[in-house]
Amino acid sequence: MNPHETLALFDDQMRRHAQPDDAHATLHLTDGVLRQTSTRQGWNGILWSDLDHTTADTAIANQISHFAALGHDFEWKLYAHDQPTDLAQRLLAAGANQEPTETLMAATISDLPTTTPPPDGIHLHPVTDPAGVDLMMQVHQQAFDTTATHIKHRLLTQLAEAPDTVAAVVAMAGTRPVSAARLDMHPGTHFASLWSGGTVPDWRGRGLYRALVAYRARIAAAHGYRYLQVDASDDSRPILSRLGFIALTTTTPHLFVVEGL
């Protein structure tokens, strides 16, 4: 895989020409940015931008005005190669809260291990209904100490309205959910993406993360996708690197809370 070519393809397919990520969302290209507007429970934010030092501040102000009028918090998903080079500083000056930086990684699916089994005593439970989503949220609460209601809303919406674009799984130790993860599939692109991977503390380091990557890679391959993409935390990046994922760039969410603007 050529990292520069793959990043260019990602920018084109997954950012510049992205599709709405739920049935209630719309995309609009304005002021040199592509924004998604959804419900308050959905994802609202900026996916792509083509700005310079003469246009950035006006574009930022206009996006703040748009979402403030709706009463929606929103995210500006900033990538390290986005221009101008001081865009992060401009977003912060406009009132954004900077979240931890993640590494955009990708792998050619045909190069990934897809037969890695879960550890002994674990069975993998596909998530297809609200009860399965509740199991995932139990894992998320223990793994990240957050309720993540937006993730729950998104997954419930996907399963109800576009089940062919998502595959989610919970690793069960008997009747206890101990790890969970989601695969999003993006029709019309070469990419499927990994999200919401987490393991409860006492089950970490036993191979669950690798098994869930393999599980999702099998599904993505069966649907004809070429690449798996993930926004990797510092904890997951070393594991993904050993599996064959390559770092393309970094991405840093900048969150605008409307009440604070």
From TrEMBL:
SUPFAM superfamilies registered for this protein in UniProt: Acyl-CoA N-acyltransferases (Nat)
Entry keyword set: Transferase
PROSITE patterns assigned: GNAT
InterPro entries tied to this protein: Acyl_CoA_acyltransferase (IPR016181), GNAT_dom (IPR000182)
Any GO molecular function: acyltransferase activity, transferring groups other than amino-acyl groups
Domain N-acetyltransferase: 122-261
Gene3D superfamilies registered for this protein in UniProt: 3.40.630.30
Pfam family, one: Acetyltransf_1
Keyword Transferase in record: yes
Protein name as annotated: GNAT superfamily N-acetyltransferase
